[in-house]
Write a structure and sequence with these properties.
The complex is a heterodimer of chains A (about 350) and B (about 300).
Chain A (H helix, E strand, L loop, with lengths): L4 H8 L1 H20 L2 H27 L6 H16 L2 H7 L5 H4 L5 H19 L8 H21 L1 H4 L14 H20 L1 H11 L1 H6 L4 H27 L9 H14 L4 H27 L10 H16 L15 H10 L8
Helix pairs in contact in A: 2-3, 2-10, 3-10, 3-13, 3-14, 3-15, 4-7, 4-8, 4-13, 7-13, 10-11, 11-13, 14-15, 15-16
Chain B lengths: L3 H28 L6 H19 L3 H27 L4 H22 L5 E2 L9 E4 L2 E4 H23 L1 H11 L1 H6 L4 H27 L1 E2 L5 H14 L4 H21 L8 H15 L16
Classes of the chains: A mainly alpha (about 350), B mainly alpha (about 300).
Chain lengths: ~350, ~300
């Protein structure tokens, strides 16, 4: 049975539509009906989703555990904040700032893009040799990278204001910019996955030796992908900076890494849908628990202050999830729409794995 | 520079770091998993010291024994509840599980005890010092050296001459073969975790002895040291881990002397730079072993 070009086109890009329409509806509903707190939470969700998608792009397709992305998010946040703050504000917020940075003043979008670009350049400079490593060595080396980035952010007083809070960034990320950017990144991540580069990267994950045997330069493929995903993380960081407006280097360290990893792992690392579903699920679970925690403390339901309950809960859920379903909620599938004829065709081909993402 | 004080200090830190690294590499050798929750074993030992010490008022030696026992039990429990269930799945799942266990234990301490530092009562031996050949040496350093060296010797004997030790070494070399020869997998892995907990417990006495207080995040420091030391020494050999620990102490002191003042703040970053360079250029570390890398499930 033949299918029209429209249905073919629709079914190949259906994942993007299925995922982005609910995000848009969520943004619209929040904007119309929600109170300020919920508006902030949903905006934060979209910003986190960008970083999670950036991480998915590398980790999901290469199979290497990526610890360093929150570090690149931090680079994007600091660079974009430095670019967008007014010289007068910078003089107060970072007393020791370098003079050439003091004069720098860019519009919001330019600042966020410069942040992403700097994250990409740093990734390009340091990551090439690391891309040779897989498994435990790969995980340790990216963890080391995260610690190095954090150490530099904490100690470079003249750029980051050191371990102290950097404040005075204008709140320029609203819910529409956040959701718009999240959908853009979602499209990018999807196209990447289906691109030649993404396919080669996924081949290297599925079978390292077979992939090199057919002529894939795995180190180079991983390298390009890592740069792209670091740029996305930096981009997310720039939006985060202009959403939260004040932060310390430790905002981009192990706690946030845990947060982002939990989102990705709960949803399933292998697909874009997993990143979206996981971000939603973890945000709902976390904010629900936080509300309970806050109410306990507010009304003194317990004789002591409750701190850390949310994290205990999330970590427990993550461990149980990894025990029961380590591949995540989506287990590598993408949400997609298929007309009936194509579905039958896919079922015939499923013996050679055509239906798998 | 190389005064007696410096020397004793370097050996004392080095032997403690060697012990720390050993506790991490025992697990890595068998599961190929870097246990991110290792630092929390040390934290747990510290809180046992705090609780037992402040509630019962027992003599310190019993408090210390309770701390070591506590670390062993919690290490065994993490294996039983979390790692054993995920073991057969991917390495990524295992690593994320250990990260989640670490977060869980840290926040449980926040929730149950307090985010604020808790003071630990230590015996006077931790705060006195002696004069030897004209150099003032804290007793703490001497005790650290004595206990660490005794532990290292004891572990060497255990690994060399007991059935458990031989089984552990065999499992680290070739786990599948070891299982085929009739060694029960769960027993070996549980023993490795208990042993790792024992080492962490002993380390917690001296690590916490430095500051005489314990916080929920105290585990990160020793974890990072153990991390770096195992990579320097070689992640697959027990000797390598010990060598790496001493090398860490030496390199860290040397970096402190050699780096210009302005870069001294970045000491930790430089240590991790060394880790990256070693991983890229000599992934087998200082001490080579002849066995191939293999992960079991």
């Amino acid at each position: 049975m033949k299918t029209s070009r429209l249905t073919t086109w629709l079914s190949s890009y259906s994942t993007i539509i299925i995922l982005s329409v609910p995000l848009l509806i969520l943004a619209a509903l929040t904007n119309l009906f929600a109170d300020y707190l919920l508006l902030r939470i949903v905006t934060a969700l979209f910003v986190s989703l960008i970083v999670v998608l950036g991480m998915q792009l590398f980790m999901g397709n290469s199979g290497i555990l990526a610890w360093a992305h929150v570090g690149f998010m931090g680079i994007g946040a600091y660079v974009s904040a430095l670019c967008s703050m007014t010289p007068a504000m910078k003089e107060i917020a970072i007393p020791q700032v370098y003079p050439f940075l003091l004069q720098l003043h860019l519009p919001f979008w330019a600042a966020v893009l410069v942040g992403a670009a700097v994250a990409a350049v740093i990734a390009a400079l340091v990551s090439y040799p690391l891309m040779r490593l897989s498994d435990a060595a790969g995980a340790i080396s990216s963890f080391a990278l995260l610690i190095i980035i954090n150490s530099v952010l904490v100690h470079w007083d003249r750029v980051t204001n050191g371990p102290r809070t950097l404040f005075g960034i204008d709140e320029l990320t609203n819910i529409w910019t956040a959701v718009g950017c999240a959908i853009l990144v979602l499209i990018l991540a999807y196209l990447f996955k289906e691109s030649s580069l993404g396919l080669r990267l996924r081949a290297s994950r599925a079978d390292y030796y077979a992939a090199s045997a057919v002529g894939i330069n795995i180190t180079l493929v991983r390298y390009y992908s890592f740069i792209i995903s670091a740029a996305i993380a930096g981009f997310g960081g720039g939006l985060y900076a202009h959403y939260i407006t004040s932060f310390t280097p430790n905002a981009f360290y192990l706690t946030e890494t845990f947060n982002v990893l939990a989102m990705l792992v709960v949803g399933g690392t292998l697909g874009i849908s997993g990143a979206v579903v996981g971000s939603l699920a973890v945000t709902i679970a976390r904010e629900g628990m936080r509300a309970i925690e806050n109410n306990i403390n507010l009304y003194h339901l317990l004789p002591f202050d409750v701190i850390g309950l949310t994290e205990v809960f999330l970590a427990t859920v993550l461990i149980i999830g990894l025990i029961l379903k380590p591949e995540g909620i989506m287990a590598g599938r993408e949400l997609r729409w298929r007309p009936k004829a194509r579905l039958e065709e896919a079922e015939r081909n499923s013996a050679d794995g055509a239906g798998r993402g | 520079m190389f005064t007696l004080e410096f020397l004793v200090n370097a050996i004392s830190s080095g032997s403690l770091y060697a012990l720390l690294a050993l506790g991490l590499v025992i697990i890595y050798g068998i599961l190929k998993m870097v246990n991110f929750a290792y630092g929390e074993l040390i934290m747990f030992g510290g809180y046992v010291m705090y609780l037992v010490g402040s509630i019962t008022g027992l003599p310190w030696i019993f408090v210390a024994l309770a701390a070591v026992l506590g670390a062993m039990i919690i290490s065994y429990l993490t294996e039983l509840v979390a790692f054993r269930q995920v073991r057969a799945k991917s390495l990524t799942a295992l690593l994320i599980t250990s990260f989640a266990v670490s977060t869980l234990l840290q926040n449980a301490a926040l929730l149950i005890i307090s985010p604020r530092a808790k003071a630990i009562i230590l015996p006077p031996i931790f705060s006195t010092s002696v004069t030897l050949f004209g150099a003032t040496i804290p007793m703490r350093n001497i005790v650290t050296i004595t206990v660490s060296i005794a532990m290292l010797v004891g572990l060497t004997l255990l690994f060399r001459y007991t059935i458990l030790g031989i089984a552990l070494r065999a499992a680290a070399d070739n786990f599948r073969m070891t299982r085929m020869l009739g060694v029960p997998a769960n027993l070996v892995i549980s023993s490795a975790f208990v042993l790792s907990g024992l080492i962490a417990g002993v380390c917690s006495l001296f690590w916490i002895g430095r500051t005489a207080s314990v916080t929920p995040t105290i585990g990160l420091g020793p974890l990072i040291i153990a991390f770096i030391a195992t990579v320097i020494g070689g992640m697959r050999s027990l000797v390598g881990a010990a060598v790496g620990g001493f090398a860490y102490g030496l390199i860290f002191s040397l970096i402190g002397v050699l780096l210009p003042q302005g870069l001294l703040d970045y000491r930790e970053a430089f240590m991790f730079l060394i880790v990256l360079l070693i991983l890229v250029f000599r992934p087998e570390g200082l001490v080579r072993t002849k066995h191939a890398e293999e992960r079991i499930g």
